[in-house]
C-alpha cells in the first residue's frame, strides 16, 4: 500500500450483520464466604459455591446510548469439565451500516445451576467501534496487555512474519498469558470478531443538502424552488468535542512544572487577594472559569491555610493530568487546613470521583460523632452511589490481602484508603440508633431499579459486620423487618377493602387485639424503626383508629418502655400509667420527600440552636420503610381549620382553653411561655418553609399543639411547586397574625425580628444545606426528580448569596410584608372541597 494513500471502507457501506464468536472464559470464580452463605442460605444452591466448573452461560445484548437495540441472546447449555469453553457464534439482527458510533456489546455471565434462579456472576462491555472509529476485529479480550496488542499487529500483518521466530514468540506469549490469568482476580472473556480485508471506519453519510441557488436573471423566469430548509438538519461535527489546542497550551504554560518551586513562595497582591477571597465565597454550585482555575492553581500553596479554599482548589485541578492529580492528592491535601464537615460532604458528591479525594473526605467524617453523623446519614447513603469505582478498588485490595495472608478486613496493614461504606457500616454496628437508621435507609434503596444492586451489596456488608460485632442489633433489625412487613400487609388489606370506615376501625382493633397477629404484644420490647430510642411493649387497640383520608392510614398507639429502663420491668404494668407512643402508618404513599424535608428541618433547628436561637421547631419523625410504605410520628394537635371551627374562629381561644392566665392581659390571658412558643415556632417555620419552597399550604396542614407549638405537615410540594396559582413565597396566614395581636402588636414585631435573625443564621450555613440537597439529586425525590438540574439552584436563589447580608434580609422582609389577597380565598375553596369530600 502506498504511503500517500490509505484504503478503507466506510461503515455505512458494510451491510453485514454484527456477528462474533464467544470462545472461552478464563480465571477463577469468586465464591461466597461462609458468613455470606450463613446469612443467605439460598446462596448455597449457586453453582459457583458447589462445583469448580458450574453451569454458566453468556448473555449478550446490543446497546447504544445506554438503550438496548435488540433482544438479548444467550449461549446454549454446555457441561464444563476442565474449562469454560463455548466456541459458539452469535449474530445480531443489526447490520454494521445501521449502528451508531456508540454501539456496544454487553456481555453478562450467569450462573444457571440453582433451580429456578439465575445469578449474575459478572459482566463486561465491548464497544464495536474503537477510539479511532474503527470496529474491533479478530480476537478481543478484556484487560489486554502489551503482548496482546503486538499479537493483533501480527495478525493484521503490520509486523513481519518469521516462522521460526513466531513459533518461539507464541510459546512465550502463551506462558505469559497463563501466568497473568493465574495471578489475576479478574475473569477473562475471549470473543472472536470477524476480520475484514480493508479497515472499516465509522462515518456518517454525506449530507445531500442542495446548495443555495443564485438569484435568477431578469431574462430567465425563476423556477419554483423545492429545496428543503437546511436548518431542519443537524450535521455532525466530529471535532466539536476536541480539546482547544490554544487553551491547552496556555494551561500547560500557566501550570508548568518548572514554576513549582516558585509557586511555593508566591504571595498574592492586594488585588489578587481580593479576587481570591471572592472566589472562595462562591457557592458550591458555581462553575469556575478557566481563568479562575488557573489563578487558584498559581496560589495553591498560599491557599492551604484557608479551609474554605479546599473544594475550590480541587475543582481547579485537571485530573486527566497525572502530575497535577498526584501533587493535589499527595502534596497539598495533607498540608491543607482541616476543612469543615460541610466541605467534606461536597467532596463526596458526583463532582469528585478520585478515590484519594473521597478517602480524604471519609477521614474528615471520622471526626464527627454519632449524633452529628445521624444528621447527614440520609445524604451519606445517597453518596454511596458515587463510590462504585471504590468497590472495584476494594476488590483488588481484598485480593492483595489474601496474597499477603492477611485477614479480609485488615486494611491497615496495606495502608488502604478508607471507604465511605466501611465507615458507615462500622459506626452503624456500634450504635443502635445509627444502625437502625442506616439499615432502613439502605433497605429502601435496595428496591431502586437503577442502584438496587449496589445497595444490596451494602446491606450484605452491614449484615456481615453485625454478625461479627453486634448480633443483638442484627436480631432487633430482623424483628423490625418482620414488624413492618406485617404492618404493611394489614394496612394494605384495610386500604383495599370496600368496608366503611367504622368497619375498618373495628377490623383494626381486632387485629391489634389478636395475639397471633404479631402486632399485639412484643416480648422482649421492640425498638421502633421510627425512633430506635423508643421500645414498645404492646399496642393499645382502643386508642388506635383509621383516618378518613383516601389511603386510610392507620394511627396506632403503643405502650412503651424507655430504653434506659430496667429490662425486668413488668409487662403487666397499668397502661394508663405507662408512657405511650403513637405512629401513623401509610401504605400506598411515597414518604421519601417528607422524610427529606423533616431531616432538613431537624438540621436547621440544630444550626439555629448552635447560634443560641431556639425557635421551638417540632421536627416530628418520618421514616420511609419502602417506596410506597412508611410511618410518621403522631403529635397531639389540631389543624388550624379545626380550631377555627371549634373555638369561635380564634387560635387564642384554643390556647386559652388549655393554658389560661386570667391575670395577664398583656399576653391575651394566655400563659406567656405558651404565647412565646407560638411566636417562635411561627417564625421558625416561616423561614424554613420559605427556603425549601414548601407549597400547597392551607389551614388543614398547619397544626397547633395545646402547648403553643405551631408546625407544618404534608410536604407533597416543595422547591416552589404549588397546585394553586400565585402562591405567596412566605407562608404566613392571617389567623397566625391575629393570634399575635395584629400587625401592630409587639408580638408581631418580635415575630419579624426572629424571622430576620433566623434567615441570617441559616444563610451563613447555606453551603452545608446546598451540599446536602445536591447529594439527593439522584434519590428519586418526586419534586427533585422533575428538574434535578434546578433543584439546588432554587434553594440557592432563596439565600441570595450574590448580595450582602443586609440586602438579603431586606428582600426577605419585603416578602414578609406583602399581603397575598388570594390566600384567604384559596383556604375557603379548600374548606369547601373538604366539606363535599366527607
From TrEMBL:
InterPro entries on file: ARM-type_fold, C2_domain_sf, Kinase-like_dom_sf, PI3-kinase_type3/VPS34_cat, PI3/4_kinase, PI3/4_kinase_cat_dom, PI3/4_kinase_cat_sf, PI3/4_kinase_CS
Catalytic activity reported: a 1,2-diacyl-sn-glycero-3-phospho-(1D-myo-inositol) + ATP = a 1,2-diacyl-sn-glycero-3-phospho-(1D-myo-inositol-3-phosphate) + ADP + H(+)
**Protein origin, superkingdom:** Eukaryota
This protein's name: Phosphatidylinositol 3-kinase VPS34
Q: What is its EC number?
A: 2.7.1.137
Domain PIK helical stretches: 263-465
Q: Which UniProt keywords apply?
A: ATP-binding, Kinase, Nucleotide-binding, Transferase
SUPFAM superfamilies for the chain: ARM repeat, C2 domain (Calcium/lipid-binding domain, CaLB), Protein kinase-like (PK-like)
Q: Which gene codes for it?
A: VPS34
Cite the C2 PI3K-type domain residue spans from the record: 14-194
